[in-house]
Amino acid sequence: MPMQITLHVTVQVKDGNLVLTDRAGKPVTFSKDQTVQKKVSMITLGELCDVPKRQLATCFGVKTRKSYYDIRNAVLHGSPANLLPKRPGPHAPSKRTKELEALIIRQRFETDCNMYEIAEALIQRGFQVSARLVGQVLADYGLAKKNGGHPRHSRRDSWPKRRSKSSTVPASRAPASSPATPSSET
Question: What domain range is 64 assigned to?
Fold first, then answer.
């Protein structure tokens, strides 16, 4: 036998905490750390009442309507892991370690290699580095070569050369061909 429940709840966010208050004034507070419960409560209210989704999302601290529907999809069809907050920032440890910095700096002082050659030498030794990372380390320590050039087999060498603007002459200023110039047609 179904049981009918009538809800009259005021939804507020105070200092980052979700506060649901019933008609009698009894509050239920969820801290901002309880993100899963907050999302489930928002979707439950959204499914059971006719409040506009954008207004409901704003009450729960969700910024966009799309975010509301992404959360709704995770609550109704996804796994509980989809409701957990995602960690911002890099998800892998940095490749730039103190050991790697020391190797790059030592390589610069012991040889006359540019950043591409240093990166290649470190790759051969088993380190996963890029020339850009080597260049950043060298620049941070003031050891970058400003006129170092690119490796010999770079894409720049294969690009077509562009004419400089000074050699382009407008058609109105181009010298007219002389009518006395003999034609090569015979």
Answer: 9-83
For 65, the enclosing helix (H) or strand (E) is helix 65-77
Helical ranges in the chain per DSSP H: 35-48, 53-59, 65-77, 98-110, 115-124, 131-140
d(Cα 169, Cα 1) in Å, to the nearest integer? Answer: 90
Q: Looking at the domain assignment, is residue 176 inside a domain?
A: no
Whether 79 and 116 share a structural domain: no
Mean pLDDT for the stretch of residues 11-15: 76
pTM for the complete prediction?
Answer: 0.39
Question: CA 124, CA 27: separation in Å to the nearest integer?
Answer: 64
pLDDT in tens, 69-105: 888 888 888 877 777 777 777 878 888 999 999 999 9
Measured CA to CA, the distance from residue 61 to residue 59 in angstroms comes to 6
Q: Give the total number of structural domains in the chain.
A: 2
Residue that terminates a domain, selected from 36, 59, 83: 83
> Is 55 part of any domain?
yes
Q: CB–CB of 21/12 below 8 Å?
A: yes
Q: Give the position of tokens 């087999």.
A: 153
State the chain's mean pLDDT as an integer.
Answer: 77
